[in-house]
Amino acid sequence: MSRDELIRQACEFFGWRRVGRDIRGFLETEIRYLYEKGKFVGTEGGITAVR
Questions:
Q1: What does pTM read for this prediction?
Q2: Range of the domain at 34
Q3: What is the total count of domains within the chain?
């Protein structure tokens, strides 16, 4: 899925109705962390979780 879709899905999961700068910033940081740890692979256009 795309990075934007991942962020929207995460917000929905946590029950957040809007994606403000603070929430987006937090999720962007977490996405970068998961890339660094090898838990996510792909490009901006498509992120895939790794088992």
A1: 0.80
A2: 3-49
A3: 1
